[in-house]
Amino acid sequence: MAGRNHSSAYAAVKSRRSPVVVFTLFLLFLSLLFYFFACSRSLSTAANAVPDLAVDYSFVSSLERFLSGYESGGSSSPFRDDSVRDEAAEKDVEVLDDLIARSEESRLYGGGASFLSPVRVYVYNMPSKFTYDLLWLFRNTYKETSNLTSNGSPVHRLIEQHSIDYWLWADLIAPEKERLLRNVVRVQKQEEADLFYIPFFTTISFFLLEKQQCKALYREALKWVMDQPAWKRSGGRDHILPVHHPWSFKSVRKFMKNAIWLLPDMDSTGNWYKPGQVYLEKDLILPYVANVDLCDSKCLSDAKRSTLLFFRGRLKRNAGGKIRAKLVAELSGADGVSIEEGTSGETGKAAAQNGMQTSIFCLNPAGDTPSSARLFDAIVSGCIPVIVSDELELPFEGILDYRKIALFVSSSDAMQPGWLVSYLRGISATEIKEKQINLAKYAKHFTYSHPAQPLGPEDLTWRAMEAKLVNVKLHIRRSQRAVIGSRNICSCECRIPNGTFNSSSTF
């Protein structure tokens, strides 16, 4: 009897407490839901949004905004300047080396995740004659469209095509709140850096300064950089040098051959780079800046691609580009093929853009060098590149698979009468569609912008740089302990298929 009464009392208490418990749990659930929603929204905003800052894809308009901000004091940097104004003493080099060793040891034992990522870059604060003065020179003269090179190419357009030095630098020095990339950070102290960026506009100076004035500026820049303790410590192996036009910095770059060069290609013909100056293990290939507008999703869906194969450009080129004239002679008059001599200015740009957006395939033969800007014009236009350049090296090929967006044809096959047109007509509609879909996906990898976008060329540059870091540090440390006069030389030897040497370089 007592047991039954005890059970009844317990049930009564339990029934009175149940609503309170349920209500409390409900409130706790709502609180947790609100917390997770707020956190996810905050993270999403931090990762993807740059408040009140429009994305600019035009070099000229982006430069206008950049220089306007500098002129008004908006680009002043909070970073201290660790660079030296006079030649670094041996003691300075030893102190920096010790600080770097301590920093790397701290990162190594502080946790594996922090050891490599993100890439830490120290940006040299070079005198304005190497940086802002040259940007102002371009800005104040870019409307002079009559300024042409010896082969008839518009000078300012060439500078735009090779303006990778501007896009990378503008992103690196932008205020952190205006940056989207998280795989690279600018560091304030040299001892914290993985890499050192040299912000010298070598292409602008080459094209817009008088010859002797340009060479003198090159020598000054060379001395300024080589005087830095970080350069002396590593021999320049961890320094990034943008020399994207093959003519730029040519008179003095042999003294900086250990640096990581940012290039348009390797140019194995030997016309632009001396043996041992450039190779894939050390340097990085970056895409040209496209000369045509991006064909967006609406453009791609509306495009009526009635031309089988399109080419517009200079029909005669030097060195490795001699195949271009032979191809033109072979393809001229073929059904479904459009071959046009290129012209400069807005009219030429419009004609090239229209031709690429109304064609299925775009011919990309070698020019004066194995690569040309035309390849990237085709990609952003949704036109499948047909690459006829046996020695071509491609940007970010360790990250991107170009077989998904392009066709590679050997020069010997392309030169056979009727072979190329017959080959293209044999490509199935399914394969064409797949490549067009992939072109739409890949276009962002070749579209420079400010602020730099995730998966854009600036982003992929630092992803590729990260992959080089362990090897860079290996060679720095190895050079520091190697016995002088030792025959134990570490070299990179690239061989062509027949087994002969293509290049041999000491890193």
Automatic annotation (TrEMBL):
<keyword id="KW-0812">Transmembrane</keyword>
<dbReference type="Pfam" id="PF03016">
    <property type="entry name" value="Exostosin_GT47"/>
</dbReference>
<keyword id="KW-0808">Transferase</keyword>
<dbReference type="InterPro" id="IPR004263">
    <property type="entry name" value="Exostosin"/>
</dbReference>
<feature type="transmembrane region" description="Helical">
    <location>
        <begin position="20"/>
        <end position="38"/>
    </location>
</feature>
<keyword id="KW-0333">Golgi apparatus</keyword>
<comment type="similarity">
    <text>Belongs to the glycosyltransferase 47 family.</text>
</comment>
<keyword id="KW-0735">Signal-anchor</keyword>
<protein>
    <submittedName>
        <fullName>Exostosin family protein-like protein</fullName>
    </submittedName>
</protein>
<dbReference type="GO" id="GO:0016757">
    <property type="term" value="F:glycosyltransferase activity"/>
</dbReference>
<dbReference type="GO" id="GO:0000139">
    <property type="term" value="C:Golgi membrane"/>
</dbReference>
<feature type="domain" description="Exostosin GT47">
    <location>
        <begin position="117"/>
        <end position="423"/>
    </location>
</feature>
<keyword id="KW-0328">Glycosyltransferase</keyword>
<keyword id="KW-1133">Transmembrane helix</keyword>
<dbReference type="InterPro" id="IPR040911">
    <property type="entry name" value="Exostosin_GT47"/>
</dbReference>
<keyword id="KW-0472">Membrane</keyword>
